[in-house]
Write a structure and sequence with these properties.
The protein is α/β, with parallel strands linked by helices. It is built from six helices and five strands. Helix 3 packs across helix 4 (about 95-115) and helix 5 (about 130-140) runs parallel beside helix 6.
């Protein structure tokens, strides 16, 4: 007659359960990571320099915050840009002190926002005939990995930013990220 010790039986059950759990864990196939998900992660982690064209509108402020969060992990360099439009009737190098002062103020505000995220930015002001051409020229000169645009509907006096963002998305050789501000978050345009 075989005598089974209860302690021995308990240890046997624990041992078999542990070995079974180990085998299940070892041979479990991890969830499949899709190729597109891997490419998206790789694309975002490759961002080393970001261009943020800004105006004096709320969507530009949000774009700066988005760019800071986008490049935080990689410690990406950020370039803030303001394009001063020069009409065809004027020379590109003609001084525009009032426009340059306003552009400097806009860039300074942008730099303050970026500092709140721990960023030091480079600021650029350029004179150009069109906003999209100016942005794309700087993107090429700076060899940026991404352009972050902020767009909204309430603060725009015209559809200029809509046309600008579409033109940049169509012609840019780098990644373009457009942050459209939800209507309820965007402040009302000041009365003119």
């Amino acid at each position: 007659m075989v005598h089974v010790d209860p302690l021995g039986a308990l240890l046997g059950v624990v041992f078999v359960t542990a070995i079974g759990a180990l085998l299940v864990w070892m041979f479990r196939v991890p969830p499949v990571s899709t190729l597109s998900a891997a490419k998206a992660y790789s694309s975002l982690s490759a961002v080393r320099k970001v261009l943020v064209p800004i105006t004096d509108a709320f969507p530009s402020e949000r774009a700066i915050g988005l760019a800071c969060r986008l490049g935080r992990e990689q410690k990406a360099e950020m370039v803030l840009l303001n394009v001063i439009i020069v009409p065809f009737s004027m020379a590109l190098d003609m001084p525009a002190p009032a426009a340059e002062i306003k552009a400097s103020q806009i860039l300074e505000l942008g730099a303050v926002i970026a500092q709140k995220y721990g960023y030091t930015v480079r600021k650029r002001i350029i004179h150009h005939r069109s906003i999209p051409d100016g942005i794309l020229q700087v993107a090429q000169e700076e060899e940026v990995d991404a352009i972050v645009l902020g767009v909204g509907l309430k603060t725009r006096a015209s559809s200029q930013w809509g046309k600008t963002s579409l033109e940049i998305m169509r012609r840019a050789t780098c990644e373009v990220i457009v942050d459209k501000v939800p209507m309820e978050e965007e402040p009302l345009a000041p009365a003119v």
